[in-house]
Design brief:
Helix content: 10-25%
Mean pLDDT: 74
Number of strands: 32
Largest sheet: 5 strands, antiparallel
Number of helices: 4
Strand content: 35-45%
Radius of gyration: 60 Å
Structural class: mainly beta
Distance between the termini: 179 Å
Shape: elongated
């Protein structure tokens, strides 16, 4: 009996599918500067590619990565995000999710504001913040906010030109706090007419400059008609309306020695010269007849400056110097006097003598003299005397030399006949010898 064999055949059908993806894994809100990571997941066969979109536009093109990362997120990344999955089965897009990027308030600064006397002014800053900021206002000096809008501040300024106010705003939200301020100054009113719907509306008249004055800080502040300066001195004067400081809204015109010296600035600077200057300031704030004030600058020639009194230290130094000089002079005088008291010492053969010319009435002694010389190589007195003898002119053989006994060999003294005085005679004697004066060097 033959048995039949049963065969089983399996047919495998490959199925493709794709389900709607889910965008997840990030929280919101986030703070500006944080890192944000988004994950897209989809049940699909085969594996899909993923695309990330913000407000309908691609922020990461199709690819295998299912993750989108934003490092240090900024406020411009705030918006609606989606992810898209695609494979051979088709394309599916996730539900959108909002990314909320928050940051502290940012305030746009205002330039300083000038307003007329008694005017009402409203301060409004441009503030950008997420979440919305709250506002805190105050002023210095203190004023009252007269409006009901928390984002603006309205107050009325004083009637005094030159008064100023500092308006402070503090804007805060959950992320941070930011302060800002603006200065409001009361100035002169310079506008007289304005156009409104083709009609002329008259405003209050412009402020008059009132009592105009010239101020010079280097010459005692308020100047009463004239000041004095030195030649070459730098002079600066300040023109003020009603005594108010600069920046009060008035304009000025300066004249220096009859010539235009500038406009708009409230200050004038110039270098003083001999002869002086005439200065004129006009306040031109729109008044029908601008105020005017004049100033004379007297400049005289420089006088010779007298020396300042000596200081105590200088006087002490001078006195000490004088004492030192006197001490030195005293020592020198003592030494000189001592030398005179001791007199000349007897000269040995080792001494040096000067040449001596005899002054005599004796014709036989004319042009004769005794010549001395220093010792040679330490030779004795006798050797020196021989040298002297060889160099000494010999007396005439016609008549013996009556002075020989005083001149010859080894006599240590030389004598001047002029010292004999009234006792002079043709022949030397013991009295002449006693009155002679030794000459030494």
């Amino acid at each position: 009996m033959t048995m039949a064999t049963k065969s089983t055949c399996y047919i495998i059908i490959s199925m493709t599918d794709l389900y709607k993806p889910v965008l997840s894994s990030f929280t919101t809100p986030v703070t500006e500067g944080d890192t944000v990571e988004m994950l897209c997941s989809a049940d699909a066969n085969p594996s899909p590619t993923y695309t990330f979109l913000k407000d309908g536009g691609e922020v990461q093109p199709p690819g295998a990565s299912s993750t989108f990362r934003i490092q240090s997120v900024s406020r411009d990344k705030d918006g609606s995000y989606e992810c898209r999955a695609s494979n051979s089965a088709g394309t599916e897009t996730s539900e959108s999710r909002m990314l909320d990027v928050q940051y502290p308030p940012e305030i746009t600064p205002l330039s300083n504001i000038e307003v007329s006397r008694g005017e009402s002014v409203t301060i409004s800053f441009v503030v950008v913040a997420n979440p919305t900021a709250t506002y805190t206002w105050n002023t210095l000096p203190a004023t009252t906010d007269t409006d009901n809008n928390p984002e603006t501040y309205t107050f009325t300024v004083s009637d005094t030109i030159g008064d100023s106010y500092t308006v402070n705003l503090t804007a805060s939200n959950d992320v941070g706090t930011t302060p800002e301020s603006v200065k409001v100054t009361v100035v002169a009113r310079i506008t007289t007419l304005m156009t409104t719907t083709n009609a002329l509306t008259t405003l209050p008249p412009p402020d008059s400059c009132g009592a105009l004055s010239i101020v010079s800080e280097s010459h005692g502040n308020v100047v009463d008609g004239a000041i004095s300066a030195q030649p070459g001195e730098d002079v600066t004067v300040d023109c003020r309306c009603g005594g108010s400081s600069s920046g009060n809204g008035f304009k000025y015109e300066w004249t220096l020695d009859g010539e235009n010296a500038g406009t708009d600035s409230d200050k004038l600077s110039f270098k003083a010269v001999v002869g002086g200057h005439d200065v004129v300031c006009k306040g031109t704030a729109g008044a029908p007849e601008p105020s005017e004030v004049s100033l004379s600058v007297n400049v005289a020639k420089k006088e010779k400056q007298t020396s300042d009194p000596l200081s105590t230290g200088a006087i002490v130094g001078i006195v000490i110097g004088i004492i030192v000089v006197l001490v030195i002079l005293a020592v020198v005088i003592v030494i000189v006097l001592k030398a005179r008291e001791d007199g000349p010492s007897n000269k040995s053969a080792d001494s040096a003598y000067m040449d001596v010319t005899w002054d005599t009435k004796d014709p036989n002694r004319v042009n004769q003299g005794k010549k001395t010389a220093p010792p040679i190589n330490g030779n004795s007195k006798q050797e020196a005397a021989k040298l002297l003898e060889s160099d000494t002119p010999k007396p005439s053989t016609a008549e013996p030399d009556p002075y020989e006994k005083y001149d010859r060999y080894g006599d240590e003294r030389a004598y001047s006949r002029t010292s004999y005085g009234d006792d002079y005679n043709d022949k030397p004697d013991e009295d002449d010898y006693a009155n002679s004066m030794p000459v030494t060097v």
